[in-house]
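Researcher: Sequence recovery benchmark, item below. Answer with residues only.
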């Protein structure tokens, strides 16, 4: 679990999740997140306090804090490898 703060307009670069799933939970501010799914393309949503963003196995994502910045909790769950 990570307690993170993003300054206004700070970005989370595009990255893919092959072995973990993540949940981003916004505590303060606003965040625009885009999920990249090989089968379903891209989906962008704007999140505010109390909203969550799920990144499933095999998906990628990137995001940017909006003008007020953002504080969020990130919970990562690693899937065991067979």
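Model:
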């Amino acid at each position: 679990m990570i307690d993170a703060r993003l300054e206004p307009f700070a970005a989370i670069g595009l990255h893919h999740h092959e072995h973990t799933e993540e949940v981003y939970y916004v505590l303060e501010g606003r965040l625009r997140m885009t999920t990249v799914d090989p089968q379903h393309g891209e989906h962008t949503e704007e999140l505010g306090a109390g909203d969550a963003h799920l990144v499933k196995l095999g998906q990628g994502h990137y995001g940017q804090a909006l003008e007020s910045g953002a504080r969020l909790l990130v919970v990562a769950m690693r899937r065991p490898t067979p």
